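Same chain as my last thread, 121 residues:
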Amino acid sequence: MAWDVALRVCVSFCTGIGLGALLTVPFTGALAIAFGFGGLILGAPLALVAAIIAAAAAPSVYRRPILWSVVASAISLGAYVLFDPPMNLSAAQRDGMATLFATCCTLAFLWLQRDAVRAAQ
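reply #2:
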């Protein structure tokens, strides 16, 4: 049961990055593919840590999935801003894309958790 949450975290991470990349196609064109692959490669260690934490705290994740999703998004965005501070317009636009990707990942996780949350209630 605990690894079920970890699997959902990994699947929602990949789904969110892919969906976020598709949403940026009108603005970035073919670079959206590179942004998607870059997000998958660079975000994989953070997603792995999030999956391990979610597996360790599975009962709490089932009780409060929205809180866990918001906190995970905030931590990942904080880590991104820490390593790529918005010093100019281009960096601020990358922060906006990271926010979009994190939001897509959060929504994908909540969508995957909907049946588990109903069963836990």
